[in-house]
Amino acid sequence: VRLKGKKTDVVTDIHPCYEIDNFKYIWTSSPSIICVVLYIFLAILSIVTICGNLLVIISIIYFKQLHTPTNYLILSLAVADLLVGVIVFPFSMAFSLSSCLYHEDLFCKIRDGFDISLSTCSILNLCCISIDRYYAVCQPLIYRTKINDHVVVTMILVSWGVSAIVGIGVVIYRLRNEKCEKSFDDIMANTVGPVLSFYLPVIIMLCIYFKIFVVALKQVRSIQNTKSGGTSSKMERKATKTLAVVLGVFLVCWTPFFLTKNTTPVPVIEALNWLTLSNSMLNPFIYAFFYSWFRSAFRMLISGKIFQEIRLNLSHIYACTTLSN
């Protein structure tokens, strides 16, 4: 059991790596094999997430031919996923969802703040990508005027700014309302929050991609016997398909968590929470499957050719500087 004020709560769901000691939820002194295997798996998941998204970031930054508005948005999404691997994974391993439910402290609130902030950032980046794809497929003649570097940078700054405000707001709100009644907190956490940070953006994205799908079908019929302009349109449709898969994987990873109820066992909730975090690991594999440029960049990074090119470029710059002096 666990005492809380004048109430006595019965704790029936225990994390395999934690135990109850003096009514506190603490790390077990003798972790089981399940606990060790679990944390090895989560550590591998974190490392793969970090390495995969680093490949995406380095590829887009280094190769100038990849400097396009769409890829800048993918870069922003990869940065958010990278931070999930660097920050949220370690925090979630040290302060699991189970332990934070029974032993809320400052680090649990900080973990929740980063989790919510980066999750919001991911979905806002996906919203921006869907808008980019809408103009690329549905309004191709005005695409370059509507979606340019300045507009994309604004989109990225707004996404990260709103996400930071949401994350900081969550931490401040929970710190100030520790002694307030739980009813309002439950309304915010179970109704308003999910609607604003998940359901509403998802509905908007689904509507946009449905419109893109309808227009893309019409374009396929109209250019079947035309070679001119067909290649460009085909590339846009492929990019749209890839990013639609990214959205689909996001929904598969996140929807079960938001559909869970308060009666759901804690181990199930925690497993679904880790499923949401694994979405940050899956995106680079989607790029690798669909994009040849990512596979080429991956091979160059693994083989070390990219570092050879950087060294040659630096040598060339040094030689030119020496000659000019």
From TrEMBL:
Domain spans labelled G-protein coupled receptors family 1 profile: 52-287
Topology relative to the membrane: Multi-pass membrane protein
PROSITE patterns xrefs: G_PROTEIN_RECEP_F1_1 (PS00237), G_PROTEIN_RECEP_F1_2 (PS50262)
SMART domains according to UniProt: 7TM_GPCR_Srsx (SM01381)
Keywords: Cell membrane, G-protein coupled receptor, Membrane, Receptor, Transducer, Transmembrane, Transmembrane helix
Transmembrane segments: 33-62, 74-102, 151-175, 195-217, 242-259, 271-294
Gene3D superfamilies in UniProt: Rhodopsin 7-helix transmembrane proteins
GO terms assigned for molecular function: trace-amine receptor activity
GO cellular component: plasma membrane
Chief localisation class: membrane
Protein family: Belongs to the G-protein coupled receptor 1 family.
PANTHER family per record: HISTAMINE RECEPTOR-RELATED G-PROTEIN COUPLED RECEPTOR, TRACE AMINE-ASSOCIATED RECEPTOR 1
Protein's UniProt name: Trace amine associated receptor 1
